[in-house]
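Figure 2 data, in text form.
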Amino acid sequence: MIVRSLRSASAWGRRLGLFTIFLVLGWLLAVSILKQSDNISADRPSDRPLQPLGNSAPAATYIAQVAAQPQRLDHVSAKFESESNTHPLTHHPNIVYAALGGPSNFEGSLFLDLVYSLNHRVPNSTLKLFIHPDNQYSAKQSANRHHFVPIICNKLVQPYVLTRFLCYFDELKHELGTTKVGMVDATDVIFTGDVFDQMTPGVMYTVQEPISFPMAKCRHHKRWITTCVLPYGGTPTWNSIKHHGMLCAGTLFGSGVGLRQFMETFVTALIRTKCNDQGLLNMLVWTQKINTTIWTYEQNGVRSLNVVKNNVNLSGALVIHTGDGAAGRSSTNPIRKKYSIARSLSPVWQPQVGE
């Protein structure tokens, strides 16, 4: 009886020992996996989701975070991006950049006015529309109907008005050489002529509002510039440049080389500061930190109507930037109606030179 009990205890002891061994081995394996996962996360900070921009977060801090992120496109997005950058339309000598952020409506009438006016008045040009990867499929469907090239950029996050320039800077490496480039707002710009014929290779162009409305009359510019950090802004900078006309960040033009040089300075300043994009543009130009040729409102070329209240003059304008002003928008209604008719005829309608 005693011998039988000893044998039973021995068997249970062996079983308990084997169970303990397996338990220890499982614990060691789990610890090893967790450590490996931590190492991978530490080596790949770009895989961590970006935090949304809150009210207390400076825009510049967020832009710097976005700028540091490499492209994180999945296989489908990467393939789509490759197709976009090799699109036959990109071989045209004139390129226009625009950006639509968020869950954008690519069939919106204001955006399509830009597309059709460009195709109609400057047939040897291509619109590159920068979008977030989340919108790539609806953008591609619209692009096939309306003839523009969608370019995926996962840096295009809020605030879109600032982060669009990060996308533009990355894409400009494809525009070097003799290519002429325009950077315009997506929903308030119309082409009425070939502005690229007015451009000199190697030169960058900015567009000025009417000189009768200098920056000193605009409370927004005063706030943008006086609150911008040194050495770019501040009250002394504002006092020294406020008598100048307002330059618009929604209409920039130049050769690929000229714009690339400008963007190196401009994007660096955007990342380092809390500055509004248009306020920063005026600071850089009027303090001579960048060289640019200025197209004034009074010249034929690009007509910016943000502050125009009445007596809108569109004679000779090659590009119209209506901006937020009611007068500017109403003055372009006949032009917009024309392109609405053109869209209704698509794809039968084709742009004709000189039409």
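Caption note: The CA atoms of residues 214 and 245 lie 4 Å apart.
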